Amino acid sequence: QVQLQESGPGLVKPSQTLSLTCTASGDSINIGGHYWNWVRQHPGKGLEWIAYISYSGRTYYNPSLKSRVTISVDPSQTQFSLKLTSVTAADTAVYYCARSFRYTSGLYAMDVWGQGTTVTVSS
Amino acid sequence: DIQMTQSPSSLSASVGDRVTITCRASQSITTYLNWYQQTPGKAPKLLIYAASSLQSGVPSRFSGSGSGTDFTLTINSLQPEDFATYYCQQSYSTPITFGQGTRLEIK
After folding, report:
1. What one-character-per-residue DSSP string does B9-40 give?
2. Is B95 at the interface with chain A, CB within 8 A?
3. What residues of B are in contact with residue A113 (Cβ under 8 Å)?
4. How far apart are CA B47 and CA B60, in angstroms?
């Protein structure tokens, strides 16, 4: 069973770029049928989907963040990353990586999650 | 974007109670609806996928139903570990969207 672990700086200055990595263990990211997501949760708030990347490298972004977000897969196929540019205090949140598993019906659901990493944007 | 609206936003119940949480989509999503449970400080956990299919390892007291725009999550015989926040999520189209959450508290 794949396990996911987020890593990256816990503190980012305003206007800088937030960079996070999600490392998969127990399985490769390069497996057909799955998508690999970033989701965030502002303090005391609900869940916000940021983006996902397919096993083939196709990317999908939340329009609300699309101009600032890049998601990519490492050639090692064990990591995928998130870059969020021009951050502000509004980007302070817990960031999760998650796998979207493709069920036989064609539906995707996020069945494996990292533990989350807290990112604070502050000078 | 498809808006997901949960009700209630919070509810209080006792161990052993049966509770129902509702999720409504702003347009039809057929059965492309998932439910998650989140406890404080933890990542969300998938409970139900495709509106009514129980994720492996999830207790059978959890069940889901619905299609189109209206969905429910039912928890029978509440256990202490069930007091958490529950989210619905549509995977019908991008952007993926979640409901605002329903906080289930101990009465």
Report:
1. SEEEE-TT--EEEEEEESS--TT-EEEEEE-T
2. yes
3. 43-45
4. 10
> Nearest-CA neighbor of B96 among A52, A112, A72?
A52
Distance CA B80, CA A66 (A): 40
Cβ-based interface (< 8 Å): residues of A facing B = 37, 46-49, 52, 60-64, 96, 98, 100, 103, 105, 107-111, 113-116
Cα A22 from Cα B102, distance rounded (Å)? 28
Is B43 close to A96, i.e. CB distance below 8 A?
A: yes
Digitized pLDDT (tens) for each residue of chain A, 123 residues in all: 889 999 999 999 999 999 999 999 887 777 667 899 999 999 999 999 999 998 778 999 999 999 999 999 886 778 999 999 999 999 999 999 999 998 877 789 999 999 999 999 999
Q: Could A109 and B44 be called an inter-chain contact, meaning their C-beta atoms sit closer than 8 Å?
A: no
Q: Closest approach of chain A CAs to the CA of B78, in angstroms?
A: 23
Tokens of B31: 């059965």
Instruction: Name residue B67's beta-bridge partners.
Output: B70
